[in-house]
Write a structure and sequence with these properties.
heterodimer; A: 410 residues; mainly alpha; 71% helix; globular; B: 426 residues; ABC transporter involved in vitamin B12 uptake, BtuC; 2 domains; three-stranded mixed β-sheet; two-stranded antiparallel sheet; 66% helix
Chain lengths: 410, 426
């Protein structure tokens, strides 16, 4: 290899290499990806807006009108997204104005928690798409405690959260054992475990002995969680935001400490970088896999507790709301780091919060699904975004390192 | 095909070592049938209905006591388990036909037990034909999985390819008024999606699993958006293609039981009948297939003997996508008759599982897909004939079977060696 590397031009002006570093570095690329995602989303909105199509069919007659419909459509769409997720400019008072932001936080909390779980496994070099199943069993566990057990305030809630985490962790450990002891690929195992969990969850919801509501009809649905187990409102009755946000913040801190400061996390990262090197260094890679999947599932369990203990009315199969799948995109977008996952969770939480006001404004909120997918796709596949913006490739760091060692050798 | 199976590295099955696990699980299931369904089972009669309507040869219904049936089947299953055990002691692998025969008897006992006392009896034609129709997307998705994994590219995007095929075939079929055009458009669209996967994975070396997952998310996003913002606003002119007509094959469709289920179908089913054996033949009997498999097993060696690894991979993945697109078309214009949001409902992921269950071999994959198709219809049917049965556990069975298979209980499952690994020409 090194023979091939030498003829490449090694002398590079310093300024250019710094620029190169910034341009190909993560923040700029992520920003450009998000921008491009929104631009393509705008194209989708405009092309499939009836007003725009009508006005453009008579473009010659009234070009100004045709152009303005494009603007209106975008204003309706992204304007509604803003006022539905950040600040409602049409509100009469501050409380109504700021409510969208608290909704964003409420939607972001479970995404962040589950996202942290997926992120953890990414850093161990595992591709875990099992958050959906882990959330399902977590939901079942938390709801069983919150509807079938009587305990004093706070204690009840804590127990429900713990049981959710434990149930989810068991689901993760099964994956870990199948992976570590039997060599099964975690992608397939987690997909299958998702389906098993979904069936199990529906079964529990149907069974009077487990979760079915006391005076229920035919539909699989649980009772409302007992008041003692509910996550209380964080900012008073004016807002829907509840204590799940606090759990989310705590789990972010825990994740950061675990991954960046603890020996445990060091082991995780080491296995993720190079499993055989880690093995040579005396780390039990198999056990690390099991631990990682268990803790990762625990984070999903927190997301499950957040969902199960905050709903009004009973639990149904729809409460999972695609969080488990979104968690994958959150982890990818957040680069598997605590801060990144928080930002990604906030962005997708804003998408969820803004969807209803987009619906009201007459723009299909489904366009956000396209935007979301594109953003993460661009970030996960750097070549696309580099080709579109004609960004330079990452600087030849490796070449410089090779050159230095060669000079030192001489 | 016996000759090929023992050639090392050609078939994943060549890695199989005789193991007691399979025989033991056969014996356990046999005991469950004998005791659970038979000795301690339901009393009462069960009626097997072999013919639905006017076949030329009409078989009479067969009524039998549920206990007698299940006890005798249980004994047969235990005997088969003993045969398998005997072969095992002789250091031979239990042949696939034994498993198929075993599966047939086990299913008969299950159906009989479920339908005991039910007035409609066991409607064999209904169950069989629905099994096949429901399995088509899984089979074709599975073929797509085989075609890309055999050349070393993991294709998680089957779900997206199915959904693309379903959407495009429905919309194009409605707009043009010609379902065949819709079907071809579906294949082209899914093929294009596959090209994205292929070029990102092969040329740009992006992590294949991540790309696959994200392409799924993207297709779900786009089809959801187009469905609500465009198609759903004018359903009659955009999303109302109807289905292909049934084309009964003369004579063959009059065979009792299997005639109607196999030979009175839509073109999508017949295409599946063609694609599966052709793929098997090409993969295991032609130079083309040998080259493809060598790329998936050892790309460096393939490159050394002059095979263009990148090109081989690109075209196999693309063709695979087209097959999956046909599977998507089978969902809409081959079955339901219009597109619904996220209508593939995870079938692409099930197809992935089926590929592993069937050990990357088209015929076995088809059998695995039929198992899944069977459980889907069994859930519906069991709810009718014997209400109160926990159907969720029936739903769970194929997933558990897959888990057991990937965990190595049913023999060592070995994927193509270079699956998921990018190849950089050195």
């Amino acid at each position: 290899m090194s023979k091939k590397l030498i003829p490449v031009k090694a002398e590079e002006p310093k300024a250019e290499s710094v620029l190169r570093e910034i341009m190909s570095g993560d923040p700029v690329r992520i920003g450009l990806s998000i921008l491009l995602g929104f631009i393509i989303g705008a194209v989708f909105m405009v092309v499939f807006s009836e007003d725009v199509v009508d006005s453009w069919s008579q473009f010659g007659a009234d070009p100004n009108y045709a152009l303005s419909t494009v603007w209106w459509t975008l204003q309706d769409g992204y304007g509604a997204l803003f006022s539905g997720s950040i600040y409602n400019l049409n509100a009469d008072n501050f409380i109504d104005g700021i409510r969208p932001l608290t909704e964003t936080l409420r939607f972001a909390a479970p995404l962040v928690m589950a996202g942290l779980g997926v992120a953890l496994t990414f850093r161990v070099g595992l591709f875990n798409i099992g958050a959906t199943g882990q959330i399902m069993v977590g939901l079942a566990g938390a709801t069983f405690i919150s509807t079938r057990v009587e305990l004093p305030q706070i204690l009840h809630m804590l127990l429900a959260v713990m049981v959710a985490v434990l149930c989810a962790a068991v689901w993760g450990i099964i994956v870990g054992i199948l992976k570590a002891r039997f060599g099964a690929h975690e992608v397939i195992v987690t997909i299958m475990m998702n389906y098993v969990a979904t069936s199990l969850f529906t079964f529990f919801l149907r069974e009077p002995a487990f979760l079915l509501e006391a005076n229920g009809g035919g539909t699989p649905k649980s009772d409302q969680p007992a008041d003692t187990a509910r996550l209380g409102k964080l900012l008073g009755p004016e807002f829907n935001l509840h204590y799940g946000l606090i759990i989310a913040v705590l789990s972010v801190v825990a994740y950061w400490w675990l991954m960046e400061r603890s020996t445990f996390g060091f082991r995780f990262r080491m296995v993720g970088h190079n499993a055989s090197a880690a093995k040579a260094a005396g780390i039990k890679v198999e056990n690390t896999f099991i631990w990682a999947l268990a803790i990762s599932a625990g984070f999903s369990g927190l997301a499950a507790a957040n969902q199960a203990l905050s709903i009004d009315g009973g639990l149904t199969t729809s409460i999972e709301a695609g969080i488990g799948f979104d968690a994958i995109t959150v982890a990818l977008l957040g680069g598997s780091r605590a801060g990144g996952v928080v930002l990604a969770g906030l962005l997708f939480g804003a998408f969820k919060a803004g969807a209803s006001s987009m619906q009201v404004a007459g723009v299909s909120p489904e366009v956000l699904g396209v935007v979301k997918a594109l953003i993460v796709l661009f970030i996960a596949a750097p070549p696309i975004i580099r080709a579109i913006y004609r960004l330079p490739k990452p600087g030849p760091k490796m070449l410089e390192a090779v050159k230095k060692t060669e000079k030192a050798g001489k | 095909m016996g000759k090929i199976e023992v050639t090392p590295g050609m078939f994943s099955q060549a890695e199989l070592k005789p193991s007691l696990k399979a025989s033991i699980s056969m014996a356990v299931i046999g005991l469950i049938v004998l005791l659970g369904f038979g000795v301690f089972g339901k009393t009462g009669d069960v009626r097997f209905v072999w013919s639905e309507k006017q076949e030329l040869i009409k078989l009479p219904d067969w009524t039998v006591n549920s206990m007698t049936l299940c006890i005798s089947v249980g004994v047969i299953l235990l005997l088969l388990a003993a045969v398998s055990l005997f072969w095992n002691r002789m250091n031979r692998i239990t042949p696939i036909w034994l498993t198929v025969v075993y599966g047939f008897f086990a299913i008969m006992a299950l159906l009989g037990w479920l339908a005991t006392g039910a007035p409609q009896g066991v409607q064999m034609v209904f169950i069989l034909s629905n099994t096949i129709v429901l399995a088509i997307p899984l089979i074709l998705g599975g073929m797509a999985g085989i075609m890309s994994e055999r050349v070393g590219v993991v294709n998680i995007a089957i779900e997206g390819q199915l959904l693309t095929g379903a959407f495009v075939s429905s919309v194009v079929g409605t707009i043009t008024g010609n379902l065949y055009v819709g079907m071809i458009a579906a294949m082209v669209a899914a093929g294009l999606l596959s090209m994205v996967l292929a070029s990102l994975a092969i040329k740009y070396l992006v992590e294949q699993i991540i790309i696959g997952v994200l392409l799924n998310v993207l297709v779900i996003g786009i089809t959801n958006f187009l469905h609500s913002a465009w198609v759903d606003k004018d359903r009659a002119n955009l999303n109302f293609p109807g289905t292909f007509e049934k084309l009964p094959i003369p004579v063959l469709s009059d065979i009792p039981i299997i005639g109607q289920a196999l030979f009175d179908n839509r073109i999508t089913v017949y295409l599946m009948f063609l694609i599966v054996p052709i793929l098997w033949y090409v993969l295991f009997r032609t130079k083309l297939g040998l080259r493809a498999r060598s790329v998936g097993e050892h790309p460096l060696a393939a490159d050394t003997v002059g095979i263009n690894v990148a090109k081989t991979r690109f075209w196999w993945v693309t063709l695979g996508g087209m097959v999956a697109g046909l599977g998507g078309a089978a969902l809409t214009i081959g079955n339901v008759g219009s597109f619904g949001r996220e209508m593939s409902g995870g079938q692409g992921f099930i197809a992935l599982a089926v590929v592993i269950l069937g050990r990357w071999q088209p015929i076995y994959v088809t059998l695995g897909a039929l198992l899944f198709g069977f459980t889907i219809i069994l859930r519906v049917w069991a709810n009718q004939v014997s209400p109160g049965i926990p159907v969720d556990f029936i739903t769970m069975v194929p997933y558990l079977v897959t888990l057991i298979a990937v965990a190595g209980f049913a023999g060592k499952v070995r994927p193509p060696a270079a699956s998921g690994q990018p190849y950089v020409k050195g």
